[in-house]
Amino acid sequence: MHRRTLIIAEAGVNHNGDRARALELVKAAARAGADVVKFQSFRADRLATAGAAKASYQQAATGNAQSQLEMLRALELSEDDEVNVAAACAAAGIAYMSTPFDADSATHLVRRIGVSTLKVGSGDLTNAPLLLQLARFQLPIILSTGMATLAEVEQALGVIAFGYLADARAQPSPAGFANLLLDRETWTELRAKVTLLHCTTEYPADPHSINLRAMATLQNAFGLPVGFSDHSRGIHVPAAAVALGAAVIEKHLTLDRDLPGPDHRASIEPDEMAAMVASIRDVEAAIGDGRKVPAREEIPNRAVARRSLVAIRAVRAGERFTEDNLGVKRPGDGIAPIEYWDYLGKIAQRDYAANEALEP
């Protein structure tokens, strides 16, 4: 059976730096039936320089009046805000998650809030120092792979494995990361703790750029659980990803797509999130176990839809069955049509009325 897909409502920075809006996003995600609501934990000054440019989608959504650094400063939640949001998640019955963008934010999430899983955004897949610091917490990691090649994903896994398995006194190095991946026990550890998310880092992402088959490529290359972080419009692509084996779905959630901010336009609103969750659960139920046997619900319909051997005109006892008097008609509760040729030439043991089913 297909295991239950973990559905992450990506609140991200769609609170626009407002704790009250963050709390509303928690409620909306819980009402929609998501398993997790995820935020982002960062300090703008640790994340970007004053000269860092905005992405084109950010420019389109927020204009050019602010730099990326100024935009990020306006989107921060304080550590106390995060504690309040995590408490609201517990009260609403939904798991809290956040993507840390620096070691201090990660320490806060792990030590003060007590998160059970760490999420790494696509932009930090090549941030080896951060990956190493996160892995040393020994928690499961969900790693988005947008913009990445297989070689870059493999390199990131080497860093994470080093953080999980190497002695804290060991000197990190590219050679050390690569060597760990030669050990079978390393892959046992990675398979137990790391999930890879295929992702297209564009907001919104056009269907032609999504390439859902890359999930299978990741699965075949590394043998780890795979999922999909979706930036497409609408809700149909995540359901398709689940049909193709996604163990995790992540999708941006906003209270209103018309709000100012970088990610709102590529997000779905609460009613759409609820529809997406329902669609995914339907797909999970439809996937089944792969055995080609009648569903329990089908069995009563076999007699209605299938056919049996019948006399297509009156036949007297002692008369032989021929193509002129033997046929197949509904219902299918008698002799199966596969025996048609065996009955041709047989002698009727009793009289049969037209359209009467044959007896064995």
From TrEMBL:
Residue stretches making up the AFP-like domain: 308-360
Q: Which PANTHER family match?
A: N-ACETYLNEURAMINATE SYNTHASE, SIALIC ACID SYNTHASE
Q: Which UniProt keywords apply?
A: Transferase
- EC number assigned by the record: 2.5.1.56
Q: Has keyword Transferase?
A: yes
At the top level, the lineage of the source is: Bacteria
| Transferase as UniProt keyword | yes
Please give the SMART domains that the UniProt record associates with this protein: SAF
Quote the protein name from its UniProt record.
Answer: N-acetylneuraminate synthase
Q: GO molecular function: any one?
A: N-acylneuraminate-9-phosphate synthase activity
PROSITE patterns membership:
AFP_LIKE
Q: Which Pfam families match?
A: NeuB, SAF
Query: Which processes are annotated in GO (biological process)?
Result: carbohydrate biosynthetic process
List the gene name. Answer: neuB
